[in-house]
Amino acid sequence: MRLLSAALLLSFVCYSQDSTPKERARGVRDLAKQGASAIPQIVPYLKDESVDVRKEAATAIAELGTIQALDPLQAALADKEADVRIPAIAGITNFYLPGYIDKGWTSSIRRVGRGIKGRFTDTNTQMIEPSLQVRPEIIATFGKLVQDDPDLGVRSNAARSLGILRGRAATSNLLAALKNKERDTDLIYECLVALQKIRNPESAEGVMFLITDLNERVQIGAIETVGILRHREAQPRLREALDRAKNNRVRRAALGSLGMIPDEANRSLFESYLTNRDEGLRAAAAEGIGRLGKTEDLARIEKMFNEEQKKTAQLSLAFAAVMLGKRDLTQFSPLDYLLSSLNNSSWSGVAAPFLEELARNQAVRESLYPNLSQRTAAEKTEMARILALSGDQATVKVLEDLSRDPDAQVGLAATRWLGVLRNRL
Fold it and tell me: Each residue of 173-230: pLDDT tens digit?
C-alpha cells in the first residue's frame, strides 16, 4: 500500500502543471489504467490549460464509464473546445448504453456523426431500454448542443446521442437543427435518425419539407421518418416522391414509407410493384400489402413467399404472410423462416425488426411460446428481447423458463429482459 501511495504521489509530481502538456496527458493515461477508482484523480485535468490534456482526461473518464463519470462529463460539456465536448457526449451515452464506445476511442474518429442504420423498419436497435431513465438535465443539455453549439461535429454527435437516449424532451431542438443555416447534411441526417428513434408523432410535420430535399441521403431519411411516425398527412408527398424518383433507392424508401401507413388507397401502388424486377421494391410492396391486413391476400402472398429466390423479398413476404394470419411455427413456415434468419448475422438485422412488429400481436406471441426453448441460442436471446418489449403477463412465464436455459448466455439475457418486462408491466 505504501508503495502504491508513493507511486501515486510521484505521478502527481511528474504530471503537475509545471510539467509539459505531453507529460500530463501521459499521466492521465497512466491514472486511467487503475480503473474507475482513479476518476477523482483524473477530474482536475478537465481544467488543464492544455486542450490536449483536457481531451485526454475527458476520453479517459468516458472510457471508464461508471456512474462516477457522469458529473465530470456533464461539466466537460461546457468546455470551450469541441475536442473535449465530443468525448464527453460519447461517454455519457456509453454510460446508458454500454459498448457505445470501445477502448481506444478518440474524439477524432467521430468528429462528424455518420448514421449507421439497418434496413428501413419501424424499429432501430441502437437505443437504451425503454424503462431506463436518463437524467433530464442531460437531455436538456444535449438538446441545446444540437441546436446551438458552434461546432457541427458536436451537434451531430449530440443528435445521435439524443436518439439513442430516447430524448423526447429535446424534440423541438432536433426539429430546429433540421433547419441549420449551414445546411449540414450530416447534422440533418443524424437529427432525422434521432426523431425516428424517439418516435414522437408530433415531430412528423416538422420533417415534411425535407421529403423533396435535393440531397438524396436527407430525402430518404425524411421519407423514412414520416413513415416510421405513421404520418398519414405525408401520403400525397410520398406518392409524389415515388412518381418523381430518379432511382430505386428513393422509390424503395417512398414505397416502404407508404407501406408503414396502412391505407387501402395505396393498394394499387403495392400491387403494381409486387412483381417488380427490383427485389427491394417487391419487398416494400409485400410489406405494404401485409399491413393492409386483408386475409384474402394471404394465399397469393404465401405462394410468392414459397417461390421467391431473393432473401430481401422473401423476408418481407414472410412478414406479410404472418401479418395476414399465417402464424403456425412449423418447419419452413414464414414465421419459422423469420426466426431462423436470426442465426445469420447478415440478415438478423432485417428479421429482428419484423419479429418485433409482429410480436405486438398477441396471437403471434402465443404461436412463438410453445417451442421457444427448442430454438437456437441466437434465436432465444433475440426473442427474449423482443418479447420483453411487447409481451404481457403470459410472457413472464416464458422468460422465466428461458432464464433457466442450459446455455448460460441465454439465461443471462432472458433474466435481464425479464426484468425489463416486469418493469414495463
Answer: 999 999 998 899 999 999 999 999 999 999 999 999 999 999 999 999 999 999 999 9
- Number of other residues whose CB lies within 10 A of the CB of residue 218: 20
Burial of 152 per CB tally in 10 Å (0-12, 13-18, 19+): middle
Q: Which CATH number is 80's domain given?
A: 1.25.10.10
C-alpha to C-alpha distance for 413 and 384, rounded to whole angstroms = 7
Say if CB 204 and CB 181 are below 8 A apart.
no
pTM exceeding the 0.70 threshold for the entire prediction: yes
If one counts the domains in the chain, the total is 3
> What is the structure's pLDDT at 140?
98
Contact 189, 217 (CB under 8 A): yes
Residue 410 is assigned to a structural domain of this protein: yes
Give the pLDDT score at 96.
94
Local confidence band at 47 (pLDDT 50, 70, 90 cut-offs) = very high
Q: How far apart are CA 200 and CA 278, in angstroms?
A: 32
One domain for residues 359 and 382? no
The set of cell numbers assigned to 173 is 431542438
Residue 252 belongs to some domain of the structure = no
Q: In terms of residue numbers, what domain contains 38? A: 15-97
Positive or negative CA dihedral for 19, 21, 26, 28? positive
C-alpha cell at 58: 475527458
